Amino acid sequence: MSIGAQNKNERHLTEKLSTSGFRFTPQRQQVYDVILHKRDHPTAEEVFIRAKKQMPEISHATVYNCLDALVKCGLVRQVQLERGATRFCPNMEEHCHYHCGACGKVFDMALPKNFTDMPQPKGFKADHYDIAVHGLCADCANKRKN
Amino acid sequence: MSIGAQNKNERHLTEKLSTSGFRFTPQRQQVYDVILHKRDHPTAEEVFIRAKKQMPEISHATVYNCLDALVKCGLVRQVQLERGATRFCPNMEEHCHYHCGACGKVFDMALPKNFTDMPQPKGFKADHYDIAVHGLCADCANKRKN
DNA sequence: TGGCTTATTTAGAACTATTCTAAATCTTGA
DNA sequence: TCAAGATTTAGAATAGTTCTAAATAAGCCA
After folding, report:
1. Which residues in A132-144 are b (16+ Cβ under 10 Å) and which e?
2. 3-state secondary structure (DSSP) of residue A135
3. Strand nucleotide closest to residue B25 (CA to C1')
4. Crossing angle of helices A3-19/A26-37, nearest 10°?
5. pLDDT tens, A16-63?
6. pLDDT-derived band of residue A1, with 50, 70 and 90 as boundaries?
7. Secondary structure of chain B as H, E, C letters
8. Distance between CA A81 and CA B82 in Å, rounded?
9. Which end of chain A is more exposed for a tag (fewer CB within 10 A), N or C?
C-alpha cells in the first residue's frame, strides 16, 4: 500500500472512531491495518498473531477490544461461517461469502443491487445482511472428483 | 402434535439416519422431537435442558452427537447468528433468518424461488445457503422509538 | 502547560461452548 | 448367541471470548 493510501486510511479510521465515541489509538490502527492488509477473513487469533509481529506488546484482550470498536464504528464486519471462531472482513459493500467446507477459503462476491428486496416480517427494521454460501471451491471440487 | 404425525416423523427420522449410515436411537429421536416441538432456534444447551425433562439421563455429549447426526443426515440445520452458541432449526426449506439484536428472537421467512441465482466464483459447487438479516423486530423497534 | 477525568491497555483469571476420552452399553449382522 | 462396531455416559480437556483490576495514555479545561 502506498503512503498516500495509508494516510487516507488513517484519516478515515480517526474520523469513524470519533463519530462513534471511540479514541484513536495505535493499537486500533494496527489491528485495522492487519485486516486491510491481508483480506483472507482472519479470526481474532490470527489478527492477534499478525498484529504482534509489528507490535509485540499487544495483548489478546486489546485485539478483541479493537475489533469490537472497528465493528461498532462500521469499518469491519464480523462473519460467522461455522461453529468456532468469528472471522473479520473489511469489505463493507453488500456482498456474499462463498465458503469452501474442504479448505476453509472464503471468497467475496458482490451482490446484485436488488438482492435485499426480500419478504420481511412486518415492522422489522433491517440493519445488515449476512449472506453465505457453503460448498466446495473449484479446486476442492476437482480433487474430490478423482 | 398428533400420534399420526409423530409416527410419520419417526419413520422419516429412521430412514434419513440410516441412509447416512447412522443408527436410530431413542436419544436421537428425543433430540429431534425437542427441535420439532418448539421451533425457536434453540442452542445445544437449550436442547439439552429440554431433552433432559423427558430423558433425565441424557448427557451433554450425546446432545452434541445427536445434533451432529441430524445435521449430517439433512433433518436439521445449524444457524450461526452471532458470536457464541450455535442454534438449530428443523426448517429445511430455503429460508431467511431475521434476527432481532435487542430481544434475540429469530423469525423465519421463505425465500423467493429465484433467490439463489447470484454471481458465483468460477467452479464453485454450492451446497447450502445461509441468509440472515440482523436488525430490530417490530416490538423492539417501537420500544426504542419512545 | 498541568492536573483531572475517562478511555484504553495489559496480563491473567474466569467463563462459555464445544470436543475429546475411555469405559460401559447397546445394535446389528453373521 | 457372539463378535464387531456404534453409541452413550461422565467428566476432563480445549478453544474462543469476556471479565477484572491495576497501570497507562488521551483529551479537556483552567
Report:
1. bbbbbbeebeeee
2. strand
3. D7
4. 120
5. 999 999 999 999 999 999 999 999 999 999 999 999 999 999 999 999
6. low
7. CCHHHHHHHHHHHHHHHHHCCCCCCHHHHHHHHHHHHCCCCCEHHHHHHHHHHHCCCCCHHHHHHHHHHHHHCCCCEEECCCCCCCEEECCCCCEEEEEECCCCCEEEEECCHHHHCCCCCCCCEEEEEEEEEEEECHHHHHHHHC
8. 10
9. C
For residue B118, the model assigns a pLDDT of 84
User: In sequence order, what are the residues at sequence separation of 6 or more whose Cβ sits closer than 8 angstroms to the Cβ of residue A129?
Assistant: A94, A116, B131, B132, B133, B134
- Interchain contact, A125 vs B136, CB within 8 Å: yes
Cell of A10: 488513517
- For residue A100, pLDDT over 80 is answered with yes
Beta bridge partners of A96: A109, A131
Q: Could you give the C-alpha distances from A146 to A13, A137, A139, in angstroms and in order?
A: 48, 15, 12
pLDDT value of residue A116: 73
User: What global pTM score does this model have?
Assistant: 0.90
pLDDT by residue (tens digit) across B10-64?
788 999 999 999 999 999 999 999 999 999 999 999 999 999 999 999 999 999 9
Rg of the Cα atoms in chain A:
17
> How distant is C1' of C19 from CA of B29, in Å?
22
Length of chain A: 146
Measured CA distances, A112 to A4, A96, B113, B129 (Å): 31, 10, 16, 16
Tell me the nearest-neighbour CA distance from B11 into chain A, angstroms.
29
Query: Does residue B101 belong to the interface with chain A, where contact is any CB pair within 8 Å?
Result: yes
Report whether B66 contacts B27 (CB < 8 A).
yes
